[in-house]
Amino acid sequence: MGLLEIKDLKVHYPLKSGFLSSKRNLAAVDGISLSLEEGKNYGLVGESGSGKSTVGRAIVGLERITAGQIIYEGTDVTAAIGKRKSAHKRNVQMIFQDSGASLNPKKQIGQIISEPLHNFEQFSQQEEQKRVLELLEMVGLPEDALRKYPHEFTGGQRQRIALARAVALRPKFVIADEPVSVLDLSVQAQVLNYMKRIQEQYKLSYLFISHDLGVVKQMCDELAIMYRGRFVEYGDRQDIYLNPQHIYTKRLLSAIPNLDPGNRELHKRLRREIESEYKQSMESYLAKDGRVGDLIPLSKTHRIAGKPSKGER
Ligand SMILES: Nc1ncnc2c1ncn2[C@@H]1O[C@H](COP(=O)(O)OP(=O)(O)OP(=O)(O)O)[C@@H](O)[C@H]1O
Protein backbone atom coordinates (compact mmCIF):
# COMPACT_ATOMS: atom_id res chain seq x y z
CA MET A 1 0.00 0.00 0.00
CA GLY A 2 1.31 3.39 -0.95
CA LEU A 3 1.41 6.39 1.36
CA LEU A 4 -0.58 8.38 -1.14
CA GLU A 5 -2.48 6.98 -4.07
CA ILE A 6 -3.97 8.99 -6.85
CA LYS A 7 -6.52 7.16 -8.96
CA ASP A 8 -7.63 8.42 -12.35
CA LEU A 9 -7.50 12.05 -11.22
CA LYS A 10 -9.18 14.60 -13.47
CA VAL A 11 -9.30 18.35 -13.07
CA HIS A 12 -11.21 20.16 -15.79
CA TYR A 13 -11.65 23.92 -16.04
CA PRO A 14 -14.59 25.46 -17.87
CA LEU A 15 -13.45 27.26 -21.01
CA LYS A 16 -14.91 30.70 -21.49
CA SER A 17 -15.28 31.92 -25.03
CA GLY A 18 -16.95 35.08 -26.27
CA PHE A 19 -19.76 36.65 -24.32
CA LEU A 20 -21.57 33.31 -24.09
CA SER A 21 -19.77 30.80 -21.90
CA SER A 22 -18.76 27.75 -23.83
CA LYS A 23 -19.76 24.36 -22.47
CA ARG A 24 -16.37 22.95 -23.32
CA ASN A 25 -13.80 22.17 -20.64
CA LEU A 26 -10.05 22.34 -20.53
CA ALA A 27 -8.75 18.98 -19.32
CA ALA A 28 -5.80 20.36 -17.33
CA VAL A 29 -5.41 16.94 -15.68
CA ASP A 30 -7.00 14.16 -17.64
CA GLY A 31 -6.89 10.87 -15.78
CA ILE A 32 -3.60 10.29 -14.01
CA SER A 33 -2.81 7.57 -11.47
CA LEU A 34 0.16 7.37 -9.13
CA SER A 35 1.16 5.39 -6.08
CA LEU A 36 3.61 7.17 -3.81
CA GLU A 37 5.50 5.22 -1.19
CA GLU A 38 6.70 6.48 2.15
CA GLY A 39 10.24 7.89 2.27
CA LYS A 40 10.68 8.10 -1.50
CA ASN A 41 10.78 11.24 -3.61
CA TYR A 42 8.82 11.67 -6.78
CA GLY A 43 9.28 14.10 -9.64
CA LEU A 44 6.54 15.46 -11.83
CA VAL A 45 8.06 16.89 -14.97
CA GLY A 46 6.70 18.52 -18.09
CA GLU A 47 6.56 21.71 -20.07
CA SER A 48 4.66 24.76 -18.93
CA GLY A 49 0.91 24.16 -19.12
CA SER A 50 1.16 20.35 -19.01
CA GLY A 51 -0.87 20.27 -15.77
CA LYS A 52 1.82 19.66 -13.12
CA SER A 53 0.81 22.42 -10.70
CA THR A 54 -2.84 21.49 -11.07
CA VAL A 55 -2.02 17.97 -9.85
CA GLY A 56 -0.22 19.36 -6.78
CA ARG A 57 -2.93 21.87 -6.04
CA ALA A 58 -5.64 19.22 -6.37
CA ILE A 59 -3.82 16.92 -3.91
CA VAL A 60 -3.78 19.63 -1.23
CA GLY A 61 -7.32 20.79 -1.94
CA LEU A 62 -6.59 24.05 -3.75
CA GLU A 63 -8.35 22.86 -6.90
CA ARG A 64 -11.71 21.21 -7.21
CA ILE A 65 -11.36 17.61 -8.39
CA THR A 66 -13.56 16.74 -11.37
CA ALA A 67 -13.18 12.96 -11.03
CA GLY A 68 -10.94 10.37 -9.43
CA GLN A 69 -9.79 9.57 -5.93
CA ILE A 70 -7.02 10.56 -3.54
CA ILE A 71 -6.23 7.87 -1.00
CA TYR A 72 -4.00 8.60 1.96
CA GLU A 73 -2.72 5.64 4.00
CA GLY A 74 -5.59 3.51 2.72
CA THR A 75 -8.35 6.04 3.42
CA ASP A 76 -10.23 7.80 0.65
CA VAL A 77 -9.77 11.49 1.48
CA THR A 78 -11.15 12.95 -1.76
CA ALA A 79 -14.22 14.45 -0.11
CA ALA A 80 -12.34 15.71 2.96
CA ILE A 81 -9.47 17.40 1.13
CA GLY A 82 -11.11 20.80 0.73
CA LYS A 83 -12.12 21.09 4.39
CA ARG A 84 -10.12 23.63 6.35
CA LYS A 85 -9.00 21.53 9.29
CA SER A 86 -9.08 18.05 7.77
CA ALA A 87 -6.40 15.57 8.84
CA HIS A 88 -5.29 15.58 5.21
CA LYS A 89 -4.31 19.25 5.55
CA ARG A 90 -1.83 18.41 8.25
CA ASN A 91 -0.47 15.31 6.57
CA VAL A 92 0.16 16.85 3.16
CA GLN A 93 1.71 20.29 2.76
CA MET A 94 2.78 22.34 -0.23
CA ILE A 95 5.47 24.91 -0.96
CA PHE A 96 5.36 27.13 -3.99
CA GLN A 97 7.72 28.70 -6.46
CA ASP A 98 7.20 32.22 -5.20
CA SER A 99 7.24 32.14 -1.44
CA GLY A 100 7.40 35.92 -1.37
CA ALA A 101 3.79 35.84 -2.51
CA SER A 102 2.68 32.97 -0.27
CA LEU A 103 4.04 34.51 2.97
CA ASN A 104 1.78 37.19 4.43
CA PRO A 105 3.83 40.43 4.19
CA LYS A 106 2.09 41.88 7.26
CA LYS A 107 3.03 39.02 9.56
CA GLN A 108 6.28 38.40 11.38
CA ILE A 109 8.14 35.18 10.59
CA GLY A 110 7.36 33.79 14.06
CA GLN A 111 3.63 34.26 13.43
CA ILE A 112 3.87 32.75 9.93
CA ILE A 113 5.65 29.61 11.07
CA SER A 114 3.45 29.11 14.11
CA GLU A 115 0.20 29.45 12.15
CA PRO A 116 -0.18 25.72 11.35
CA LEU A 117 0.58 24.95 15.02
CA HIS A 118 -2.28 27.25 16.10
CA ASN A 119 -4.64 25.60 13.64
CA PHE A 120 -3.89 22.01 14.52
CA GLU A 121 -2.10 21.75 17.87
CA GLN A 122 -2.88 22.81 21.41
CA PHE A 123 0.57 23.99 22.40
CA SER A 124 1.27 26.26 25.33
CA GLN A 125 2.96 29.52 24.40
CA GLN A 126 6.29 28.18 25.63
CA GLU A 127 6.03 24.94 23.68
CA GLU A 128 5.05 26.85 20.58
CA GLN A 129 8.00 29.24 20.92
CA LYS A 130 10.35 26.27 21.38
CA ARG A 131 8.99 24.53 18.29
CA VAL A 132 9.24 27.67 16.15
CA LEU A 133 12.86 28.22 17.20
CA GLU A 134 13.63 24.58 16.38
CA LEU A 135 12.11 25.05 12.92
CA LEU A 136 14.06 28.25 12.30
CA GLU A 137 17.27 26.53 13.26
CA MET A 138 16.45 23.62 11.01
CA VAL A 139 16.36 25.93 7.99
CA GLY A 140 19.47 27.83 9.10
CA LEU A 141 17.86 31.08 10.27
CA PRO A 142 18.83 32.95 13.44
CA GLU A 143 16.51 33.54 16.39
CA ASP A 144 16.06 37.23 15.57
CA ALA A 145 14.29 36.22 12.33
CA LEU A 146 11.23 35.64 14.57
CA ARG A 147 10.28 39.28 14.71
CA LYS A 148 11.19 40.22 11.15
CA TYR A 149 8.92 40.46 8.11
CA PRO A 150 9.17 38.49 4.83
CA HIS A 151 10.49 41.50 2.83
CA GLU A 152 13.57 41.59 5.09
CA PHE A 153 14.78 38.27 3.66
CA THR A 154 16.30 37.14 0.37
CA GLY A 155 14.43 34.83 -2.03
CA GLY A 156 16.35 31.77 -0.79
CA GLN A 157 15.69 32.63 2.85
CA ARG A 158 11.98 33.14 2.15
CA GLN A 159 11.88 29.72 0.52
CA ARG A 160 13.46 28.27 3.68
CA ILE A 161 10.83 30.04 5.80
CA ALA A 162 8.11 28.48 3.63
CA LEU A 163 9.79 25.12 4.13
CA ALA A 164 9.84 25.59 7.93
CA ARG A 165 6.13 26.43 7.87
CA ALA A 166 5.35 23.44 5.64
CA VAL A 167 7.05 20.97 7.97
CA ALA A 168 5.86 22.55 11.24
CA LEU A 169 3.30 19.76 11.75
CA ARG A 170 5.73 17.03 10.66
CA PRO A 171 3.76 16.03 7.57
CA LYS A 172 4.67 12.80 5.84
CA PHE A 173 4.34 14.33 2.44
CA VAL A 174 5.35 17.71 1.01
CA ILE A 175 4.57 18.89 -2.50
CA ALA A 176 7.22 21.30 -3.73
CA ASP A 177 6.08 23.20 -6.82
CA GLU A 178 9.16 24.59 -8.60
CA PRO A 179 10.65 25.49 -5.19
CA VAL A 180 13.98 26.70 -6.54
CA SER A 181 13.32 27.72 -10.12
CA VAL A 182 13.54 31.48 -9.52
CA LEU A 183 16.71 31.25 -7.41
CA ASP A 184 20.37 31.57 -8.44
CA LEU A 185 22.18 28.27 -8.86
CA SER A 186 24.19 28.51 -5.62
CA VAL A 187 21.06 29.46 -3.64
CA GLN A 188 19.16 26.61 -5.32
CA ALA A 189 21.73 24.13 -4.03
CA GLN A 190 21.44 25.54 -0.52
CA VAL A 191 17.63 25.26 -0.43
CA LEU A 192 17.77 21.72 -1.88
CA ASN A 193 20.26 20.74 0.82
CA TYR A 194 17.93 21.97 3.54
CA MET A 195 15.12 20.01 1.91
CA LYS A 196 17.24 16.85 1.91
CA ARG A 197 18.30 17.32 5.53
CA ILE A 198 14.73 17.82 6.67
CA GLN A 199 13.69 14.74 4.76
CA GLU A 200 16.29 12.64 6.57
CA GLN A 201 15.23 14.01 9.92
CA TYR A 202 11.46 13.72 9.40
CA LYS A 203 11.41 10.75 7.00
CA LEU A 204 9.03 12.58 4.72
CA SER A 205 8.44 12.23 0.99
CA TYR A 206 8.49 14.99 -1.58
CA LEU A 207 6.55 15.33 -4.78
CA PHE A 208 8.83 17.61 -6.68
CA ILE A 209 7.17 19.55 -9.48
CA SER A 210 9.58 20.97 -12.00
CA HIS A 211 10.24 21.63 -15.65
CA ASP A 212 13.95 21.20 -14.86
CA LEU A 213 15.05 17.58 -15.22
CA GLY A 214 18.43 18.48 -13.72
CA VAL A 215 16.85 19.45 -10.40
CA VAL A 216 14.54 16.44 -10.19
CA LYS A 217 17.43 14.14 -11.01
CA GLN A 218 19.17 15.22 -7.81
CA MET A 219 16.10 14.88 -5.63
CA CYS A 220 13.83 12.13 -6.93
CA ASP A 221 13.71 8.35 -6.98
CA GLU A 222 10.87 8.09 -9.47
CA LEU A 223 9.63 10.34 -12.23
CA ALA A 224 6.36 10.93 -14.03
CA ILE A 225 6.58 12.79 -17.30
CA MET A 226 3.46 14.82 -17.99
CA TYR A 227 2.16 16.06 -21.30
CA ARG A 228 -1.20 17.72 -21.88
CA GLY A 229 -2.76 16.51 -18.65
CA ARG A 230 -1.57 12.91 -18.92
CA PHE A 231 1.47 10.85 -18.04
CA VAL A 232 3.37 9.75 -21.09
CA GLU A 233 6.02 7.92 -19.10
CA TYR A 234 6.49 6.89 -15.51
CA GLY A 235 9.17 4.96 -13.65
CA ASP A 236 12.50 4.74 -11.93
CA ARG A 237 14.60 7.90 -12.34
CA GLN A 238 17.63 6.09 -13.68
CA ASP A 239 15.59 4.10 -16.24
CA ILE A 240 13.96 7.23 -17.50
CA TYR A 241 17.25 9.12 -17.77
CA LEU A 242 19.13 6.34 -19.50
CA ASN A 243 16.40 4.69 -21.49
CA PRO A 244 13.49 7.05 -22.13
CA GLN A 245 10.74 5.44 -24.20
CA HIS A 246 8.54 8.32 -25.18
CA ILE A 247 9.57 10.90 -27.73
CA TYR A 248 8.40 13.71 -25.46
CA THR A 249 10.68 12.49 -22.64
CA LYS A 250 13.55 12.17 -25.09
CA ARG A 251 12.96 15.70 -26.22
CA LEU A 252 12.89 17.03 -22.65
CA LEU A 253 16.11 15.18 -21.84
CA SER A 254 17.91 16.22 -24.97
CA ALA A 255 17.07 19.84 -24.14
CA ILE A 256 19.05 19.82 -20.87
CA PRO A 257 22.08 21.91 -21.81
CA ASN A 258 24.34 20.62 -19.07
CA LEU A 259 23.60 16.91 -19.26
CA ASP A 260 26.70 15.40 -17.59
CA PRO A 261 29.70 15.38 -19.94
CA GLY A 262 29.83 11.61 -19.37
CA ASN A 263 26.43 11.45 -21.01
CA ARG A 264 27.31 13.05 -24.33
CA GLU A 265 26.72 9.75 -26.10
CA LEU A 266 23.27 9.54 -24.52
CA HIS A 267 22.54 13.06 -25.71
CA LYS A 268 23.56 12.16 -29.26
CA ARG A 269 21.52 8.95 -29.22
CA LEU A 270 18.44 10.82 -28.01
CA ARG A 271 18.77 13.36 -30.78
CA ARG A 272 19.11 10.60 -33.39
CA GLU A 273 16.04 8.79 -32.02
CA ILE A 274 14.02 12.00 -31.97
CA GLU A 275 14.90 12.73 -35.61
CA SER A 276 14.06 9.20 -36.66
CA GLU A 277 10.76 9.03 -34.77
CA TYR A 278 9.82 12.43 -36.10
CA LYS A 279 10.49 11.31 -39.63
CA GLN A 280 8.55 8.05 -39.22
CA SER A 281 5.52 9.67 -37.66
CA MET A 282 5.54 12.41 -40.27
CA GLU A 283 5.58 9.83 -43.05
CA SER A 284 2.79 7.72 -41.56
CA TYR A 285 0.79 10.84 -40.90
CA LEU A 286 1.11 12.11 -44.44
CA ALA A 287 0.31 8.63 -45.75
CA LYS A 288 -3.01 8.90 -43.90
CA ASP A 289 -3.71 12.17 -45.70
CA GLY A 290 -2.96 14.30 -42.66
CA ARG A 291 -2.92 18.03 -42.81
CA VAL A 292 0.04 20.01 -41.55
CA GLY A 293 -2.36 22.17 -39.56
CA ASP A 294 -3.11 19.19 -37.33
CA LEU A 295 0.46 18.75 -36.19
CA ILE A 296 1.04 19.24 -32.49
CA PRO A 297 3.82 21.76 -31.98
CA LEU A 298 6.23 20.53 -29.32
CA SER A 299 8.72 23.32 -29.76
CA LYS A 300 9.92 25.71 -32.40
CA THR A 301 12.32 23.17 -33.84
CA HIS A 302 10.47 19.88 -33.38
CA ARG A 303 7.02 18.94 -34.48
CA ILE A 304 5.43 15.56 -34.10
CA ALA A 305 2.35 14.36 -35.87
CA GLY A 306 -0.68 13.04 -34.02
CA LYS A 307 -0.86 12.03 -30.40
CA PRO A 308 2.28 10.58 -28.84
CA SER A 309 1.70 6.87 -28.51
CA LYS A 310 4.95 4.94 -28.43
CA GLY A 311 5.78 3.88 -24.93
CA GLU A 312 2.59 5.43 -23.56
CA ARG A 313 1.48 3.78 -20.35
N1 LIG B 1 -7.73 28.30 -12.51
C1 LIG B 1 -7.62 27.97 -13.80
N2 LIG B 1 -8.62 28.20 -14.68
C2 LIG B 1 -8.52 27.85 -15.98
N3 LIG B 1 -7.45 27.25 -16.51
C3 LIG B 1 -6.41 26.99 -15.69
C4 LIG B 1 -6.43 27.34 -14.30
N4 LIG B 1 -5.24 26.94 -13.74
C5 LIG B 1 -4.51 26.39 -14.75
N5 LIG B 1 -5.21 26.42 -15.91
C6 LIG B 1 -4.77 25.88 -17.20
O1 LIG B 1 -4.54 24.49 -17.01
C7 LIG B 1 -3.41 24.06 -17.76
C8 LIG B 1 -2.41 23.41 -16.83
O2 LIG B 1 -1.88 24.43 -15.97
P1 LIG B 1 -0.79 24.11 -14.86
O3 LIG B 1 -0.46 25.39 -14.17
O4 LIG B 1 -1.24 22.98 -14.04
O5 LIG B 1 0.46 23.64 -15.75
P2 LIG B 1 1.97 23.50 -15.34
O6 LIG B 1 2.47 22.30 -16.06
O7 LIG B 1 2.12 23.54 -13.87
O8 LIG B 1 2.61 24.79 -15.99
P3 LIG B 1 3.52 25.92 -15.31
O9 LIG B 1 4.84 25.28 -15.06
O10 LIG B 1 3.56 26.99 -16.35
O11 LIG B 1 2.78 26.33 -14.06
C9 LIG B 1 -2.88 25.29 -18.48
O12 LIG B 1 -3.42 25.30 -19.77
C10 LIG B 1 -3.42 26.43 -17.66
O13 LIG B 1 -3.60 27.58 -18.45
From TrEMBL:
The record places domain ABC transporter at 4-253
Q: Which family does it belong to?
A: Belongs to the ABC transporter superfamily.
Name the UniProt key words of this record, in alphabetical order.
ATP-binding, Nucleotide-binding, Peptide transport, Protein transport, Transport
User: InterPro entries in the record, alphabetically?
Assistant: AAA+_ATPase (IPR003593), ABC_transp_ATP-bind (IPR050319), ABC_transporter-like_ATP-bd (IPR003439), Oligopep_ABC_C (IPR013563), P-loop_NTPase (IPR027417)
Query: Which Pfam families has this protein been placed in?
Result: ABC_tran (PF00005), oligo_HPY (PF08352)
Name the PANTHER family for this protein.
Answer: ABC TRANSPORTER, ATP-BINDING PROTEIN, TRANSPORT ATP-BINDING PROTEIN
Q: Does the keyword Transport apply?
A: yes
Instruction: Please tell me the species this chain comes from.
Output: Trichococcus collinsii
BP terms from Gene Ontology: peptide transport; transmembrane transport
Q: What is this protein called?
A: Peptide/nickel transport system ATP-binding protein
GO MF term list = ATP binding; ATP hydrolysis activity
Q: Which PROSITE patterns match?
A: ABC_TRANSPORTER_2
